[in-house]
């Protein structure tokens, strides 16, 4: 039996959703992430908190999903916030200039600074 490469958990509280991702975000799993986040918007969620604490790796296909959903959220007067990205994911966000769009947060609420 093979284990899934990515698990997606969602917990709603009113118009806010916490989406916890666990595993790897790559071209195979990115469509699951997109579907889960877009469903939040269809359900009327206006603040989507994405917990990346247990994401082992996120490549550019995951980044594309976050950028697209962030844009769709803004069009719906909603927000997508990334929390606790790994150092690798944080570098990906910063290297592509996406850190300001996605508001990655470190534990304690501090935002990473550009080098």
Automatic annotation (TrEMBL):
InterPro entries: MlaB-like_STAS, STAS_dom, STAS_dom_sf. It comes from the Bacteria. Gene3D superfamilies: STAS domain. This is STAS domain-containing protein. It holds the Pfam family STAS_2. Residues 18-97 form the STAS domain.
């Amino acid at each position: 039996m093979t284990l899934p490469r990515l698990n997606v958990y969602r917990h709603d509280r009113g118009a806010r959703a916490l989406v916890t991702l666990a595993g790897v975000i790559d071209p195979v799993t990115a469509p699951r992430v997109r579907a889960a986040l877009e469903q939040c918007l269809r359900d009327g969620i206006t603040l989507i908190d994405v917990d990346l604490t247990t994401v082992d790796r996120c490549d550019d296909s995951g980044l594309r999903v976050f950028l697209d959903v962030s844009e769709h959220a803004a069009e719906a007067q909603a927000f997508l916030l990334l929390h606790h990205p790994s150092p690798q994911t944080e570098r990906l966000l910063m290297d592509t200039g996406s850190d300001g769009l996605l508001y990655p947060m470190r534990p304690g609420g501090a935002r990473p600074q550009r080098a």
